[in-house]
Each structure stands twice: as structure tokens, then as C-alpha cells.
Amino acid sequence: MLNAQWLESFAVLCETGHFTRAAQRLNMTQPGVSQQLRKLEAQVGQPLLTRQNKGFTLTPAGEEVLALAQARRAEERRLREAIRADDPAAGEVAVASSGSFAMALQPAFWPLLREAPGLALRLEAAPQRAVLDGVAEGRFDLGVVDHAPGDPRLAAERIGRETLCLLLPATAGHETPGFANLQARGFIAHPDGWLYAEELFPANFPDEFRGAEQLAVRAFVNQIGQIPAPVAHGVGYTLLPLSGVEAFSGRDRITIARLPVPRHRELWLLRRRGRVSPARVERVADLVAQVAARLQPRAG
């Protein structure tokens, strides 16, 4: 690559048209400017100037090198302007979270995008391991998981917690169901469903629950947005974090059962440790925290 300092000296020399004036602008001696010109010509392999008395004209190679020097100046100027601007309403932000929390985030994102046409958001639902690795490796600007990571590459901030919900058809009312009743209804299973059962059922049905593998499965649904759909149609029960419940379009046709011992899942916002976030990322991070706060269980 051509030496950047020599290129700049050459551009100033061409602009002033004089070695002495170029040296003054560059805070150099005239021999220093001449030496840098000779080094640049050696790099290019051709003369860049044709001297005429006290002046000079550019050779064809000199014209090409000057154009390159000016282009690099323009690129650096655009870069400096972009860094100074740090516009919170422009650029791309990538966010990753669980599927249920991603569903809760989407409705909050659309007004932001209408307000900021220059902002682009990429929201990806992913397993927690993929969220952790993606933020640590820079593929995502922000991530949301349910525990504080022990990864030294990550900085984590607790932004709230959400209730783990047992969902029944709205016709079931708000009574506390018995475990036998749930088994009779059948479990609407999904990829995280058995994990949620192991978190929720031991404390609430200690004498009856014998492990998630013993649950009577009525159906399996893999699409996060459709998991509550069978329940809304009166079929079975399921388990989801509150974010997945609130985002369901048929919310009025399901109910959250009352349980003696509630269980909650933490919400942690992740960033790459040591990375200074641009204004647009901080703006989206604030919005993510607001969504998490709305899911926070109320006292009493």
C-alpha cells in the first residue's frame, strides 16, 4: 500500500504548486518534502512530476496518484463526520432473544421504525447459547437471556423478570387446577415446554409430579406464535413466559392459572464487553428495557 503520509504531502504539494509553501503547510522542511516525493515515486515506480524552472507539472502517473490521495481524503472526511454524528436514528441494530421475548419486542419496534426511517432493526429469535455467542462474537449488538452469563466476553444488566405461566382455555376460569386435571387435558408441548415444566411443577405439585417425561402430551407445536392456539380452542394446557402470552393474538381466549408458588424467569440484557455502543444501539437498548419492565410481576 502507498504510504498515507507521503500521499498527503504529495496532495499538499500539488495544491500549493510550490515546494516551499507545501513545506510550510506541512510543518516540514523543503528537503523533507522532496525526500517524501522521491520515496513515493519509488513506491509507484514512475516519476510523478516534471520540473519546470521553479514550478512543475504532473506526469500521467502523478495525476493518478493525486486522484487517489484526494479520494482517500474524502473517505477519511466521511468517516470522521459519521463518527461525530453518531445519529441515534440511523444505521442498523441487531437484537437476539428467545422466541417469546422477540414476540413481545416486535410491537414496540414498529413505532420506533416509523419515527426513524433511517434506522434498520434485525430481530432474531434464537436459543440462549446462540444469543450468548452471537453477542460475544459481534453478530448481535444486543441480546436478552434468562440468566447472568459467566462469559468474560459479555457485559450483562438485569432488566427485569417475567412470570412463567400455566395457560388454560378462558372457559376454565381462574381456579387453581389439580395435576390430575392437567394430565387429563394433555400438555401442548413445544421445544422449551419440558424445561418450563421442571421449573414450575415441582413446587406446585410436589406429591404428584414425577418429571417432565411423564407428562401426557396432547400435541406438539414448534412455532412460538402458535403454541397457545390449541389452548385457545379448548385443547390442553401449555407453559410459556408472560412475553409469549402477551404477544398472542387470541389472548382473550386463554387464561393464566393461579398457582400457589409462582415461578419467574430473569431477563438480562447483554452487550459485548468493552465495546462502546453507538447512540442507535443505546436507543434500542432503552426500548428493550422498557418492554422488560412491562412484563415485571406486580407486587400482590
Explain this structure.
It holds the Pfam family LysR_substrate. By secondary structure, the chain is α/β, with parallel strands linked by helices. It folds into three domains: 4-85, Winged helix-like DNA-binding domain superfamily/Winged helix DNA-binding domain (Arc Repressor Mutant, subunit A), CATH 1.10.10.10; 90-160 and 265-294, D-Maltodextrin-Binding Protein, domain 2; 162-264, Periplasmic binding protein-like II (D-Maltodextrin-Binding Protein, domain 2, 3-Layer(aba) Sandwich), CATH 3.40.190.10. The chain contains eleven helices and eleven strands. It has helices at residues 4-16, 19-26, 30-44, 60-85, 99-115, 128-136, 179-185, 193-204, 229-232, 242-246, 279-294, and strands at residues 49-52, 55-58, 90-97, 118-125, 142-145, 154-169, 187-189, 217-220, 238-241, 254-256, 264-272. The strands form three sheets. Strands 3, 4, 5, 6, 9, 10 and 11 form a seven-stranded mixed sheet that branches. A two-stranded antiparallel sheet has the order 1-2. Strand 3 (90-97), helix 5 and strand 4 (118-125) form a beta-alpha-beta unit. Helix 2 crosses helix 3. The protein is rod-shaped and about 105 Å long. The model has no long low-confidence stretch (mean pLDDT 91).
